[in-house]
Amino acid sequence: MRFLLRHLSLSYARRNLAKTILTLLGVVVGVTTFSSIKTAQDALVVGIGSTVDRVAGKAQLQVTMEGGVPEALQERLRNLPGIRATSPVIEQIVIPEKGELGSLMVIGVDLLGDREMRDYGFEGDDADLDDPLLFLAQPDSALFTREFAKRAGLTTGTSLAVKVPSGVRKVTARGLMSPKGFAQAFGGNLMVVDVYAAQELFGRGRRFDRIDVRLQDGVTVAQGTEMLQKTLGPAYRVETPARRGEQMERLVANFTAGFNVSSAFALSIGIFLIFNAFNVSVNRRRRDIGTLRALGATPRQVQVLFLAEALIIGLLGGALGCLTGTAFSQALLVSMGQSTEMVYGISGSGVVHLTPAIVLQSMLLGLIASLIGAWGPALSASRISPTEAFAKGSFQAKVQRRVGPRIAAGVAFVAGAVALALSSVVKGNALVLSVLLLGGIGLVLLIGPLSRAILVALGPLLTRFFPSAGPLSSDSLLGNPRRSSGTIMAMALSLTFVLGLGGYMGSTRLTIVRWMDDILTCDLFVRASANFSRPDFLYPGAVKGEILALPGVRTVESYRAIRPQFRGRQILVGSVEMDTLMQRVRYSFAQGDLKSMKEGLLNKEMCAVTENFHDRFGLGVGDKVPLQTPGGVVQFPIVAVLHDYSSDQGAVFLDRKVFLKHWQDDRVDIYDVSVTPGTDPGKVRDAIRAKLSGRYPALISTQREFKDEIGKAIDAFYAVMRITVLLALGVAFLGIVTSLLISVAERTREIGILKALGALPGQIARSVVLEALVLALVGLMLALPAGNLFASFMEGPVAKAFTGWAMPHHYPWEVLGELIVALPLVSFLAAGIPARQAAGVKVTEAIEYE
Amino acid sequence: MHKGAKTFRPCKEEPKVLQLSDVVKSYELKSTVTALAGITLSIAAGEMVAIMGPSGSGKSTLLNLMGGLDVPSSGSVLVAGTDLARQSEKERSLFRRAHVSYIFQAYHLMPTLRVRQNVALPLRLAGVAAKEAEARVERVLAEVGLENRADHLPDELSGGERQRVAIARALVTDAPLLLADEPTGNLDSARGKEILALLRSIHGRRGTTIVMVTHDSEAASACDRLIRLRDGQVEDDGAAPGGDR
Ligand SMILES: Nc1ncnc2c1ncn2[C@@H]1O[C@H](COP(=O)(O)OP(=O)(O)OP(=O)(O)O)[C@@H](O)[C@H]1O
Ligand SMILES: [Mg+2]
How many CB atoms lie within 10 A of CB A234? Predict the structure, then answer.
């Protein structure tokens, strides 16, 4: 076998270097996608977890409360038995004015008391913080990590401009931390300030985000948790840092799960490229194989030879894919991090590591992908009869298989996938995987015969419109059905992916935009913070009166959202003055109606829940939602279930009066302002701005601006998916190039004869380009229905499983339009080199025969 | 036409279809291989010429140059007065369409096309309308005696039949010059004789100029004139022995 590999395979590889590289590229592309996505995903999740861990330092427990813990709590905690140290913390992500430095995580701590909790790495001569009192005396004081300071060009005493809610503020470096423990959190993009300065900087009022607790030696975490929970009551949450990290990881897991689909697709498309390449390699070497067989090689030996080649290619491709994957993953991570920061207000440190586990998985995937891809061709190679060595002239294998059973099996698989998607036998990731697997197999089975049928039907048309190049292309496509259907398969799968994902994104966007048109009907939105999910600053409730008093203002509603844990998920509890809101908003009901909702919310302390909340927790009209309030658990009966997209985890809505009564917290996220008819919202905006200026941060957007902003947030969410769509187009490109290069190489002799018979180089080149266009067209034709199915699947069962939102189907016309423009371009470009090669075939060399 | 001429010289009054002067063809490989080392000859319209010589003597190379499939390293190749050596590949292709057709030893039919489509191929490449092409294909298929095999695939035909399809394909464009590289090389002697007879009758009926490379002295004797090559040079040029059929 070694001998055969060295002498046959290696010499083939050397003689057909371009083709070998293309085969390798198939593996590399698949593995690269997988490993880059996986690496970035892991880094994101681990980064989030480890940031929580590192920032926690020696703290064993963290005490939090919805809306922040009041300052007085620290005093109470300190005097409890079993507590060694407590330290208040405020956490906030800010962006330096020099954006290229990346987001900075700001930690506000009580520096005097905090050394019990965290190690600041102040050793060395210049390292120490000269004077803690000086640090505290100046409110603009901050500590940075050495690493960040170096990148930002900061030294002790110089200052850095950062964007905070109230505008751009300068902070001055008073000391530098060595990169160990705590200072490694968030990739070193860390800024430590005094916790009271942070209250002022981020408008937290007299509250902290949490209080870190270190227990006395001998007190277990379980004992500590129990004791604290008991003394503090249900309004407070007492958790270990690890658990907080887990919750954050779970929140972004939803987001990262989408990428698994992308990497699965990239891999399967890689498999097709490999399949194609091996198929051709077998065809090209029929005579060699025949000779081998004539010389005594067994069919098994032949098969093993090809599988051994696949093994080598798989290993090589896996290794290369790992390396290129790591290169891409950093960029991917940054992009993912921006999305999670925008959508969830969470971000981890920005460093990717190629872990041994990922290396192993990637290599394994490369191997498996190439073995799967090479299996069929290897088998058909082993079936080549020794007489082929002596056959002259017939250089093509005839494929004649019965297509009936194949079509039947394909239809059965697709039907199975659809049935599975519609039923609820399996759920979550298992559902996605099994449906995609079944559907994928069905497609693969169907694409061959279908593409052949389409090609046969297209033949006369091609001849009609391109009298000289048409028959050549259609003949070449039909002449080797395996090669063309392999390419069409790769094309159709990647286009299915593009259309499906595009359709899904489009539907989501459209649904949310329509919903916003129903819900966001007021004229102006007054916010203190640009971040929706993790506001940096909340207004006092009294601001409402000030705004209402301005001329031209008709109504003001105070919207407040908190995000408590509910049965293991972070749901949203929103409250607003329902009486005025319900006059201007159009609701869409899944259960209940407007009249009973009005009555229930306003007069009976009932709540409305979203449809995904209802699906997720099985609570509907007639049930009660138990919510944790500072005064204990309160049961809110459900009066209506709404189609609403406020949160992908589920939301509960209350009237503001009810919220105020139970939560005793009058702060406000957003004031919704409606102006009196005929008044210019711009004027009112100026008036509000003037009123609030100097006292509160104020971001005032018109309805249009506000919607655009949310639209941008949605786009950010999908930005990374879009990259994978581009990747699919890239794979389509690669597929066409491979297929055509192979086609040209296989037909060198035919092309030579054609030229001898009077074909012009231009004619030959045109026929190759036409071939590429036809491949793309047939791929698209097959992808249209398949992509539609896939999109429906994503919008229906998948969206439901991950967000609880049921999306009405919306055909991805925009994506289709883009494809109709992009595909001919892509195939035209892809055909460039093969066409030139074909046109340059030398007649004299081509017609030589062995 | 030139029956019985003992020392054959092309008749001055006949227009020259082919005029090669001082043609050299060499390949620059690790060492320089000289396939043709200065060949000068001319062939008049309506001649039927055989080229013989040991393997490697340059026969195929010469034939390829005559048809403009390749260009000489030096010297000139005039076909119907046009110097192919000075033309671009595209010009040569266009020229070939109108003036030259080929027959190969291994037939070189398109395995996926039916006989009818194979024969029509040169016409379709030249942009002849389907209707007209169809009629001409019928005619040449009748000429080679294959009208009842028009819808077969090449694989379903015998070697002799395949070569007749190739001949039909060569005839369909009515090119005045037909080049054949060992047309009987793959056939047994009976089939070979049939092919030769067919070529001979075409030559007689259409007056096509035929240049044929062959190893077979019987095939050579079917021609009017015999050119012998050795080491890339003309060793002998004269009337074919027994050219009196
Ligand atoms: N593409 C090429 N590259 C290098 N050398 C070549 C090439 N084509 C032909 N030759 C050389 O030119 C010489 C003449 O070759 P040619 O094919 O014309 O011989 P031939 O007389 O047709 O032989 P045969 O009877 O075997 O077909 C040979 O020595 C051959 O090796
Ligand atoms: Mg030869």
Answer: 12
Question: Contact A36/A325 with Cβ under 8 angstroms?
Answer: yes
Q: In this predicted structure, what is the pLDDT of residue B38? A: 92
Claim to verify: residue A46 and residue A76 sit in the same structural domain? no
Q: Is there a single domain that holds both residue A227 and residue A125?
A: yes
- Reported for A134-141, long-range contacts at CB under 8 A and 24+ positions apart, including other chains, are A134/A174, A135/A111, A135/A174, A135/A175, A135/A194, A136/A111, A136/A112, A136/A194, A138/A172, A138/A174, A139/A194, A139/A197, A139/A200, A140/A169, A140/A170, A140/A171, A140/A172, A140/A197, A141/A171, A141/A172, A141/A174, A141/A193, A141/A194, A141/A197
**Triad A825, A830, A836: Cα angle to 5°:** 115
Asked if A102 and A152 sit in the same domain, the reply is yes
Please enumerate in sequence order all residues whose Cβ is within 8 A of that of A781, keeping only pairs 6 or more positions apart, or say none: A454
pLDDT for the residue numbered B139:
93
pLDDT tens digits for range A326-343 = 888 877 777 777 766 666
The answer on A117 and A160 residing in a single domain is yes
- A432 — phi, psi (to 5°)? -60, -50
Domain that includes residue A191, residue range = 61-239
Among the partner-chain residues A393, A750, A763, the one whose CB lies closest to the CB of B125 is A763
Q: Which ranges constitute the DSSP H helices of A345-427?
A: 356-382, 404-422
What pLDDT digit, counting tens, does each position of B6-20 carry? 444 444 456 788 999
Residues in Cβ contact with A468 at an 8 Å cutoff, skipping those fewer than 6 apart: A759, A763, A767, B124, B125, B126, B127
Three-class secondary structure of residue B177 per DSSP: strand
Give the whole-angstrom CA distance, residue A699 versus residue A529: 7
Looking at chain B, which residue has its C-alpha nearest residue A850?
A: B106
B130-143 vs B159-171: helix axis angle to the nearest 10?
Answer: 130
Asked if residue A467 has pLDDT above 50, the reply is yes
Asked whether the predicted pLDDT for residue B4 surpasses 60, the reply is no
In 3-state terms, what secondary structure has residue A238? Answer: strand
Structure token digits, residue B136: 């001409």
Shortest-distance atom of ligand 1 to CA B58: 18
The tens digit of pLDDT for each residue in A43-61 reads 777 777 777 777 777 888 8
Answer yes or no: is pLDDT of A389 > 60: no
Residue A568 gets the label, from left (phi > 0), alpha (psi -120 to 50) or beta, of left
Q: Which two tokens stand for residue A430?
A: 């298992």
Contact status, residue A766 vs residue A469, Cβ threshold 8 Å: yes
Q: How confident is the model at residue A234 (pLDDT cuts 50, 70, 90)?
A: confident
Burial of residue A63 (CB within 10 Å: 0-12, 13-18, 19+) is: buried
Provide the pairing of β-strand B225-230 with B48-52: parallel
Beta A141-145 vs B16-28: how paired, if at all?
A: unpaired
Once rounded to an integer, what is the mean pLDDT over residues A347-371?
79
For position A580, what pLDDT does the model report? 87
- Whether A188 is in a domain gets the answer yes
Q: Domain total for chain A?
A: 3
CA of B26 to the centre of ligand 1 (A): 10
Protein residue whose Cα sits closest to atom 6 of ligand 1: B27
B96 touching chain A per CB within 8 A: yes
Enter the tokens of residue B109: 């039919």
d(CA A484, CA A775): 7
pTM of this prediction? 0.67
Q: Pick the more confident residue, A580 or A796.
A: A580
Q: Tell me whether A795 touches chain B (CB under 8 Å).
A: no
Q: Within a domain: residue A157?
A: yes
Last residue of a domain, one of A696, A724, A750: A696
Q: How far apart are CA A582 and CA A5, in angstroms?
A: 76
Domain boundary among A380, A398, A416: A398
Judge whether B186 is closer than 8 Å to chain A, CB to CB.
Answer: yes
Cβ(A312)–Cβ(A1) below 8 Å: no
Assembly ipTM:
0.74
Question: What would the two tokens of residue A453 be?
Answer: 């049928």
